[in-house]
Amino acid sequence: MASVSANILAVDDSPSLRSLVREALELDGHHVTEACDGRDALARLESSSERLDLVITDLYMPIMDGLTLVKAIRDSARHRFTPVVLLTTESGEEMKQRGREAGATGWLVKPFRIDDLRHVVTQVVSAAVRRGTSERG
Amino acid sequence: MSSNGRHASVNPRPTHGDTGRPEVTIGLGEAYATREPTVIKTLVGSCVAVCYWDSEARVGGMNHFLVPGSAEDDAIRFGVHAMDLLMCEMMRAGAERSRIRARIFGGAHALNLEAGDDSVAGRNVRFVRTFMQREAIDVLTEDLGGARPRLVRFQTDVGLATARPNTSGRMMALLLATERSEVVKAREYGTVTLF
Question: Which of B19, B55, B57, B105 is the most buried (most CB within 10 A)?
């Protein structure tokens, strides 16, 4: 499905959910690393020497939630253009709007189809590459 | 919150039972959590009901799910989503993941459709045990398997859960209708929005 192999950070407090995401995206040749909450994700973003193409994050997490993570990424000089997709049980328009205002790129409601996830990742990563807005390390 | 997917949180219409607490009944594919003293009820046969409790925040919640039998991957995926929904509801209500403990019920061969590890009940039991281990969630009570459906009641403010075996004709008919409805519900998923 994917035409671009991407470096993706999957953020979720559930190891089972992170595995689902990682295994689905590795089918398309993406390289997926994992973080267990927003703070862990930020630490990995700052310490990584590699380019990061996409962050996929849960909304409700301990320590730092998904919306706070999105805002922190948008405030980061290094990663402010990195696409962020929220993966959440929240389907209400008000929460989606909050996600958009925080700077999220997309909103995928659980339970998700594996193919939907793969398709969203392909679209977002390809668009970022076309625009040349991916972080280049 | 309501999801258009198979696993939905519920908008309860509480009734007051003999405990004086509001009572909320959940069905297959639903989850509910609250910090208000409440009794959450459900009837499970081969399905599983998981009760989560955060004793410090006094937040309790329950889900009711059945993993489909189409493939092991589907079973894991749907089960994970059902558990994820309950955890999200708990955190929305003020619980902290690290404090949450579980009580798990169900997985009975209640309808005598099939038996053994590859049955629906067997898959549900296998899934929930593996999940709790993987997620490092302590299980305080495990009442799984057997042949009779269970009426599960959970008092959210004290974390007390009871599972009473129930084989009345009315309950069995309700159970049969509920578990057959799984076939329809298993095809529903969430939406995708790109901003």
Answer: B105
Omega before residue A15 within 30° of 0, cis? no
Is B194–A15 a contact, with Cβ atoms under 8 angstroms apart? Answer: no
pLDDT in tens, A52-79: 999 999 999 999 999 999 999 999 999 9
Q: Which chain B residues are within 8 Å of A113, Cβ to Cβ? A: 189
d(C-alpha A126, C-alpha A131), whole Å? 9
Predicted local confidence at residue B3, as pLDDT: 34
CA distance linking residue B96 with residue B59, whole number of Å: 9
Q: What is the pTM of this model?
A: 0.85
Helix (H) / strand (E) containing B16: strand B15-16
Sequence letter at residue A38: G
Tell me the one-letter amino acid at B54.
Answer: D
Distinct helix (H) and strand (E) counts, chain A: 5, 5
